[in-house]
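Researcher: Quick sanity check before group meeting.
Model: Go ahead. Protein one:
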Amino acid sequence: MGLMKTGSRLMLLAAMALCLLIQPGSAGATNYIFNEPGQAKKSNVNEDHHHADAPKKLNIYFWRGHEVKAGFLKNQNFLRIIKSICREHNFKFDLEPDKNRLLQMLAWADVAYGTVHAGYSSSLKKAIIQTGPSGSEQYGLGADEIAAWRKRVGDEAVPSVIILGGCNSMTSQYARKPIFTIPQALGFSQGSPRNKVMIGWAEYIIGAKAERIARLTLVHWLHKNKENNTYRGIKQAIDAGMAFAKHWHETYAPNADSDAEQLKKLDRMFINKNDKLMVDAAVILGNPELTLPQAEK
């Protein structure tokens, strides 16, 4: 009986936490039907509920690159949670976009997240984001191509927030001589620009962890801090997400051996306190204090 009560209590608490994290729509909320970019449709439910000072809807883009084996971006439950977190904004997800599609969507997006293979390509001898099968013409979107695209469309087309979940995406490591990097191609260097932020890694990473980090970061960045009714900066949102994960693990699954079932429940909610180690290794360029109202193009 005691075990049954404990299990039932944890399931109830987990459900409550999930509702808190994804903040589902309530009476008077605007619901969105997710279609092509710029085509999100509003339902006719009290559409005047927004305050006059509410930020505009952002365009939020997630993509999973070519030949990525691990991660959650093929998991419908994960995508359902992400869509719910982003429900007040325009959301689009792509599976394995090619070069042209990726650049088109980056120009559309205010916020972009990708789980990708990236970094220095020894075959192409430049930094790339993989956008096609190995050995194909579409294999890698090079830093030089990204820079040419940015020059053509202008700096304002670069997303305000970019999280690149790819190994060595922020460095020229393994190149025999200094090379032009992906952050440089997008206009990021140490300390600038102030109206944008890019987050990535200069080491080997696990894509699933980057996705969980993005999920917990967005839910704390897109919605106001209930304690002071203000929007968090992106670094504050990352820290808040990790603090939330730590709290839930230590409260409901403090013992990794005896609490195995509880840990599985947290995994199904895509919450893992051990992602903190990868957060600590993240490279942040641009403005780590960027808030949602500042992210409008």
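Researcher: Fine. The other one?
Model: Protein two, sequence then structure:
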Amino acid sequence: MNAVLPDNHINKEVYDRLHNSVVDGETFPLYVSRVTNGNPKQYFLINTQLNDQEYNKCGNGWTNSTEIQVIVRLKKNEGSKVLMNNATQEVLAELEDFSLPSATGLKVNNVALSIANEIVDERGSEIVYQKIIRMETSIR
């Protein structure tokens, strides 16, 4: 295998595009794997990254699947899923032309974005809304 594992490069590019995005007047920090700063009311989370190695005559590469969660916590009976939906739209818009800097030596050949799941979870006096966006990339 001579292809560079793309995870760190993807994390950095997604972070640079999404961290501290402002949606409807609310700031969304981005975290990787776990929330490290208190208990924010809304945030993005890169949670899962999977890679399948690709072999072809043009060189080795990867099919990468990265899941980005949009999480909004509200008090019960206050608010709706509107902020989560608008933040999801922001993520989709920011990632639709996803690429990696040439200095990484990796080229994104294809990007496919989808919404993999939506979860509504009642926790005590809160409702937690989550949308999971899957970004699939073919990388050489």
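Researcher: One line on it for the slide.
Model: The first strand starts at residue 21 and ends at 23.
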